[in-house]
Amino acid sequence: MLFAFYGALHFIRRSRITRLEAIARESESRFRALAEAIPEIVWTAIPGLGLDYCNQRLCELTGRTIEQLLGWNWKGTLHPDDLPLASSNWEKAHQTGVPIEAEYRFQTAKGDFRWHLVRATPLRDPSGKIVRWFGCCADIDDQMRHQQVLEDEVKEHTAALFEANLRLETEMRERALAQQELNLQNERMVRELTQRSTRATSLAKTAELLQSCADLKDIFAVMAGMAPKIFPELRGAVLLLNSSRDLLEVAAPWSDCQFPASTFVPEDCWALRTGHVHVVATGDSTAECRHVVSGQGAYVCLPLMSQGGAIGVLHCRRSAPALSQKWPC
Question: What is the pTM of this model?
Fold first, then answer.
């Protein structure tokens, strides 16, 4: 009786295992049928052992057989530049159980590479242990290439925009410099016109005063007082020949114009020697007048004429000697 009971129990247990195995085989068959029907690559992997299944999509893509892809052989289909990242992602997922989502390039049967979006999710047993990884790969090569084209266009447009902006900045800077130079020229022009106007007014005033002079003393006083207003950038003096015409005397200096002596012989001035205007540039010792201390800078001597003969010299020198400046007219 007891033997019959154990036999029946064993039969029931065996029948249950057989049913479970049948259900498992049926589920496996349905999974494979479904996996082969969808257009994406489908695969499963066992932790530590690598790929244990893939559908025909991966074989069709790579031109390899399932046997050539199982285990860790699938790594040979990846682009060499993507292999380090794929290995690192797989190791991290194996240790942490975090799902994988990454973009890799697979080599096709033609030898080129196509981008795929790879996703993998862990399957766990009742205790939470990962027993298998389920994954799929979707072809995104067209999207990636389109994205690359867009990125290249963005870079090209950005470079063109940067170049245009650089040209605009350069043009604006050049315009600003040109405007600044124009403003400086206008300021110089206004300053020169103001100086000329002031000088013309002073000349008119000088002429009016000279017409009212009673003697040479008055004339010298007017010239000494008005000369700094007419020529503010110059200092100078009027040197006159004495009645014997053998001495040249400093008659009317202005702006603290200094001379080595108060009288000179006519031959000391080259303007009287030549009868023409005598100009000496700074540093030029070719024909210096002896009534000027050598090295004091540029100066000019103009012979003063009356009734066909020289009566003296108008001597002018710069308050601040400069070679490049012109003498005022």
Answer: 0.47
The DSSP secondary structure of 66-87, one letter per residue, reads: STTTTBTGGGGGB-TTTHHHHH
DSSP structure class, residue 273: H
Whole-Å CA distances, 108 to 13, 25, 77, 82, 112: 49, 32, 8, 15, 6
Phi then psi for 10, rounded to 5 degrees? -65, -40
Which H or E run includes 226?
helix 216-230
Strand order in the sheet with 309-318: 263-264, 248-254, 234-241, 309-318, 299-306, 278-280
Bridge partners of residue 153, in order along the sequence: none
Query: Does residue 1 sit in helix, strand or coil?
Result: coil
Give the C-alpha separation, 294 to 307, whole Å: 33
The secondary structure of residue 292, as a DSSP letter, is S
Produce one character per residue of 41-56: b if its CB has 16 or more CB atoms within 10 Å, e if not: bbbbbeeeebbebbbe
Alpha carbon 292 to chain centroid, angstroms = 56
Supply the DSSP symbol for 194: H
Sequence-distant (≥ 6) Cβ neighbours of residue 204 within 8 angstroms: none
For 100, counting Cβ atoms within 10 Å of its Cβ (0-12 exposed, 13-18 middle, 19+ buried), the class is middle
Residues in the chain: 329
Task: Give the contacts of 8 (CB within 8 A, at least 6 positions apart).
Answer: none
Token reading at 16: 């249950």
DSSP letter at 99? P
Question: Residues 123, 133: contact at Cβ < 8 Å?
Answer: yes
Q: pLDDT band at residue 12, thresholds of 50, 70 and 90?
A: low
The β-bridge relationship of strands 263-264 and 278-280 is unpaired
Q: What pLDDT does residue 196 have?
A: 85
For residue 293, the SS3 value is coil
Overall average pLDDT of the 277-295 stretch:
87
